[in-house]
Input
Amino acid sequence: GYEGLLNIAHDSPPEQGMAIIRELLQMETLPPAIKIRAVILQSRYALPGRLVSELAPDLTLTPGRETWLYTWSENNPGNLVLAKMLAGDKPPDVELVGLCLDGETVALTQINTGGERPPGRLVRDDGVMSAHLLMSEAGLAYRVDADGVIRSVSLMRDMRDMRDMQSQRANANT
Output
């Protein structure tokens, strides 16, 4: 049940997710592993409005361009699906940056086990960047505005919500 609530918090808009997390963290019987994940998610939800350069000064972004930052790992083939979806859905003026969580184990120029390289500019993480950005697991995606400010830590949910709204508008017009 605790993990289910945490998953609901993760998939909810930040305000709702934060409310669920607060409730979870007040539970005396909350298992330590779930508590750690809840605190990380709570901290991640607090990132919008912060400058990437303050959190991860070694992560260079292209000035004046919105960036979609995603995490990936050689050991997780689902990351390539996520990255391709982001690449296909992003506007042309948005830069896609893949943060590789594999450290020194993967050369960013080599292809992955699925035979393809993730799209976008690839950056190797030394463990510090991902920790400061709270992007310590593969499959996360953030939206960073042209000024380097984190606007969303739930880019995939935002994209799903936008598609749902567009679909509702299209259905209303027919």
